[in-house]
Amino acid sequence: MPSHTRGLLIALGGVLLVSFDALMVRLAAAPHWDIVFWRGWLICLTLALWMLVNRQSFTLPTRVRDRWLIIATIILLSGNTTLFVLSVANTAAANTVVILAASPFFAALFSRVFLREPVRPRTWAAIFAAVAGVLVVFGGGLQGGTGIGDFYALLLAICLGAHLTILRRFPAVPRLPLICLSGAVAGLMAIPFASPFALSLQSYAVVGVMGIVQMPLAMLMIAAATRYISSPEVSLCLLVETVLGPIWVWWLLSEAVPELTFIGGGVILLTVAIHGWLGLRESRA
């Protein structure tokens, strides 16, 4: 099998697993802070075991300022874990995933401001289009009383964009240790608000699958895919989550997708797809 095809299949497999994330949060049927607690700690322990078996090490940068940036990205990642669960708990799953799809454009904006990287005109156009799509989704959320969940999703997209910007500053830093440590931070943050030992058997089963199998395996597959295909191609594969995530929740739980989410999500999805396709074409030129 050609390495490019192998990379695409691995990436799509990882994204397919990620696409069940919102559904798993719904099926857990548990208080959101309990989900954050177990999800964080189980991801941490699973990835720590994987790194121990594979003898992976993690070394902080030598400069103190750079070390603080790495600590910041761990905190941002833990915020991602927490904000995703809070968002899905307070709005339609479709709203969460379509707003999250705008995160690459926040990364581009932060890269321009903090890394002084030039932003191409097509990226600026994409940023404005994505913001317009997010505002449409927000409008529907305010009408339907789910504005707080949409706000969490927007914070999630901003945190993820900031996280991607810091990783761009340190491309040699391994990703898995950061994800592992962020799980521990998320679990620690949840302790004051959680009652993690009072869940039903169904809830324990779902969060167990989520934290031990689904998310760690998805993260490992997406990380492995970058060895074979380019970043723009991985970004395009990630669009599959935006499409499939709401479909799983609708199909299995009959959760309707708000009309304005269809419109705003369509704008965001089309924008990301066109922008990613143009970037892929440039990288192959």
From TrEMBL:
TM region positions: 7-29, 35-53, 68-86, 92-111, 123-142, 148-166, 178-198, 204-224, 236-254, 260-280
GO cellular component, one term: membrane
Lipoprotein recorded as keyword: no
Domain EamA as annotated: residue spans: 6-138
Pfam families hit by this protein: EamA (PF00892)
Keyword Nucleus: no
Protein name: EamA family transporter
Keywords per UniProt: Membrane, Transmembrane, Transmembrane helix
InterPro entries, per database record: EamA_dom, EmrE-like
